[in-house]
Every structure is written in C-alpha cells, then in structure tokens.
Amino acid sequence: MSKGHQTRRNIVARAIGVASTLGLDKVTIGSLARDMSMSKSGLFAHFKSKEQLQLAILQESAARFVEIVVSPALNQPRGEPRIRALFENWCNWINSLPGGCVFLKAASEVDDRPGTLREFLAQTQRDWLDTLAGATRIAMAEGHFRPDLDHEQFAYEAQGIFCAHQIFQRLLDDKSAGDRLRHAYETLIARSR
Amino acid sequence: MSKGHQTRRNIVARAIGVASTLGLDKVTIGSLARDMSMSKSGLFAHFKSKEQLQLAILQESAARFVEIVVSPALNQPRGEPRIRALFENWCNWINSLPGGCVFLKAASEVDDRPGTLREFLAQTQRDWLDTLAGATRIAMAEGHFRPDLDHEQFAYEAQGIFCAHQIFQRLLDDKSAGDRLRHAYETLIARSR
Hints:
The first copy, chain A, is mainly alpha-helical. Chain A has helices at residues 3-21, 29-35, 40-47, 50-74, 80-95, 102-110, 116-141, 151-171, 177-190. In chain A, α2 (29-35) packs across α3 (40-47). Chain A is elongated, with a radius of gyration of 18 Å. The model of chain A has no long low-confidence stretch (mean pLDDT 93). Chain A binds chain B through residues 21-23, 25, 99-100, 104-105, 107-113, 118, 121-122, 125-126, 150, 152-153, 156-157, 159-168, 170-173, 176, 180, 183-184, 191, and chain B through 21-23, 25, 99-100, 104-105, 107-113, 118, 121-122, 125-126, 150, 152-153, 156-157, 159-168, 170-173, 176, 180, 183-184, 187, 191.
C-alpha cells in the first residue's frame, strides 16, 4: 500500500469515529486536519470535497460491516446458526464504534436530502436487508424456520430490534440495552421456528 | 392568547417541520426568519438563543405527542384496546410530520451531546416508554395479555418496530413500510396474549 493510500485510510478511520458519535455533518476537513496534525490543504487533497470525504466514510464503513458481520457468518452452517451468527456479529459491529452504528446515525441525517450520500446509504441498507432476508429464506429451506414465514418481515423486525438498541444505549444510557437486544432477537428466532 | 405568544407558536410550528425533515441543527434563526418574513432580531427576541429555539421545538413536539397519541388512548377501554389505540395514534403522529418522527431525528443528533436538549429528549423518551410499559401491565392485569409477559421488553420491541418504519419509509422509500409496521405490531400484540 502506498504512503498516500495509507494516509487516506488513517483519515477515514478517524472520520468514522466522529461520524459515529456526532454525525456525518460534523466531520469537517478543518477539525480532522487538526486531529491528524495535517494541513487542511494536505487533507483536502485526499478527498477534494466534504461530500467525497463523507462518501468515503460510508464506503469504508460498508466494507468493515461486511468484514465484521457478513463474511464470518457465511462460514457458519446454513440456516439458524448463520442467522444467529449474523445477529451476534451485528452486536460486535455496534460495539466496534464509539457512538454506535454509523449507518443509523447517517440515515437520520441524509434521509430527506436526495443525493450521492443518501443513494449510497439506501443501497447499503437494502443490500443488508436482502442478506438478512436471504439467510432467513435459507433457514426456511433447511427446515429450521417454518415454511410460511415472511422472510422480508423477519428482516424488518430484526432491523427494528437493533434500532431500538441504539435509542436505549446511546440516548437513554440504559444498562439493560444489551440484554433487551439479545432477548428480542432470541424471541424473533424462537417464533420463526 | 397574546399576539406575541401566537407569533411564537407559529414560529415553533414552522420549526418543527424543519426539524422533522432536516434535523434540529438545521433549524437556524436566519432561515426561519426568512420563512416567516420576519427580521432575525424580531425572531431572536422570542427565543434568545438557538438552543432555546431547539428546546421549544422539542417541548411543543412533546405536547403534540401527548395530544395526538397518549390522551385519546386514555379514553379507550383498559387493556388491549388501549394498547391498540396507542399504536394507531403513534402511526398518526408519524404521518402528521413532513419528515416522520421528530424525536427519532433529534435522538440521533443529540445522543452523544450532553446538555439540555439531550436531557429533555431522554426524559420525554423515558416517559413514553413508561406509558407503553404501564399500558402493557394493565393489559396483563385485565387478563388480555399473559401474566408472565415482560412489559418493559414489550415497550422496547414496540419502539423498535416504529424505528424500523422510519428507515423503511424515509430512507428506503419502501412502499411496504406502513404494512410492515402494522403487521409487526399486530404480531407483537398477538404473541403477548
């Protein structure tokens, strides 16, 4: 990896932490440059615009999400074990970031702002819901889940369980957030059998 | 109501629409003054600071939420009918705003920013979860829901179902969002009996 490429990765890694806690809009080239002890023009040269920097944050986060959540689950047996691995890895993903899920944070910022960021984020989210729904269909085919289950509804409800965790954990500082999350997904699995 | 009081209400009503679509941070005294054809200093006199304006948005939203969601449900019979009314009114609340639930939008903005706004929002959210959990406990006492139900877990899962709707509706433009929401809460009610 070239030095320039490595620097760019370091900048994006730092920026993901800011986006996770304060949001995409609070990532500024000025404050990042200070954090990284770089000049603003040096940092600007890597991204050309704030939007390109924000897009790089989402792209790198999506790559990490696949690495932490999706790929390891594909090594698990098809059906319920894989669903369970996806949920456990999803918990790991949330805990890997200082402010919780960067996508949920960003979703709220860009959902009414048409453009590149919203398109990229919506596509990432659709891909993830398709992955969850697909793994659910496999669990139905394997006979782990009942044959009349609505696999897209399963994905909707799983998304909700993790969204609620963000509220309980981040806004309410609720100590039970992790237990509530796990209890909710265990119930979702149990009632899908 | 004095003219000054009425003007303040009109400003806050306008600001709630902005906060619902673009977020609390995008509510600026300058842009609101333009929208309302007022001078910036005239508008500033009503709120003294941007934070006071943002707090007024949350306070007025909380009052509206009680008016639209909570109060009408208290006129419904105790137990499952009241729970169902809370859910139906919650849907009306979401649809009453141009960008969906203003609290979910704001939660994501302030959850890592200690201060007045975060405190007020967290308290509003706790009050709402207590209301939901309390109505659930009543449904258990009435024999509509099973006696070993975890009423706080019920509130957690209900919150999740509505959070997921925000993603499906606002970010994904998913036509099925409303049906998925209703299906999820009907299932939550059915499996609580």
